[in-house]
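Propose amino acids for all 282 sites.
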């Protein structure tokens, strides 16, 4: 079975190339997460490899965003371990994980609407700045040099890459939804991540915007060498660009493997994909 989309041939080629030069970058082992008497995640384990695009799928309420929040440090699991780039980060803060190279976007656009595109993107790079508070406050010396270098990097390497040069000085509030999502992606790239976590990057987009985002995600992995862990409901995109897929349902992992293996898993079909969806995309 193969899913055919308008970007299928390019994306399937990208997914197959992602198998080279991999090693285990992120490892989640036996993660439990609950709020009071409500169990959100139960014994969840997964891995995301360098040189790959890994997708997490499942029905609404399956625990996907909660898993992202636990990995990135916004939630503190009651049990389990998160290892990133060979280091146990289970008890480190969200900002410390960001400094180590975990960058993410959010399910709902989380930008500063009164600021320009350029200023929003630069905020992502501030996790890398090392100027002392005094020079930063008065904006001189090392603080000024770091800020100028960051701006040059953003304009040269990120704004051009994501094709948003024409909106760099516009306010976020003046942009379409699709462009706002692209700016949020740019802000995450400004952190120079070792792993990029994308929470429903094409939700609410039209077909053209979805194709553009798929192309950017592939280029991020292939050209910039940044592995991607994503949550997404668009099964055409997931099956075309992903190297590995993990399936959650009611807070538990019910399947995983290559896109073909996931499509052929009867439990996954029953819980999420559905026979009609499988036939439609075959």
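Proposal:
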């Amino acid at each position: 079975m193969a899913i055919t989309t308008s970007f299928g041939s390019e994306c399937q080629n990208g997914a197959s190339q992602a198998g080279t030069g991999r090693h285990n970058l992120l490892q989640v082992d036996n993660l439990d997460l609950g709020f009071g008497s409500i169990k959100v995640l139960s014994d969840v384990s997964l891995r995301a490899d360098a040189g790959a695009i890994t997708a997490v799928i499942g029905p609404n309420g399956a625990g996907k965003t909660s898993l992202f929040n636990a990995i990135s440090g916004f939630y503190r699991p009651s049990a389990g371990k998160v290892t990133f780039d060979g280091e146990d980060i289970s008890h480190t803060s969200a900002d410390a994980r960001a400094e180590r190279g975990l960058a993410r976007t959010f399910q709902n656009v989380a930008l500063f609407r009164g600021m320009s595109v350029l200023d929003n993107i630069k905020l992502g790079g501030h996790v890398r700045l090392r100027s002392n508070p005094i020079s930063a406050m008065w904006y001189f010396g090392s603080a000024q040099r770091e800020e100028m270098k960051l701006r040059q990097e953003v304009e040269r390497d990120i704004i051009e890459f994501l094709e948003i040069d024409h909106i760099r000085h516009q306010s976020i509030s003046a942009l379409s939804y699709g462009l706002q999502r692209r700016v949020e992606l740019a802000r995450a790239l400004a952190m120079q991540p070792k792993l990029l976590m994308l929470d429903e990057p094409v939700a609410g987009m039209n077909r053209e915007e979805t194709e553009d985002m798929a192309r950017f995600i592939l280029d991020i992995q292939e050209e910039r060498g940044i592995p991607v862990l994503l949550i997404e409901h668009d099964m055409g995109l997931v099956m075309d660009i992903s190297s590995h897929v993990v399936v959650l349902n009611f807070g538990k992992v019910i399947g995983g493997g290559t896109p073909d293996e996931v499509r052929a898993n009867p439990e996954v079909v029953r819980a999420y994909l559905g026979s009609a969806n499988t036939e439609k995309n075959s």
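The radius of gyration is 19 Å. Residues 73 and 96 are 9 Å apart (CA to CA).
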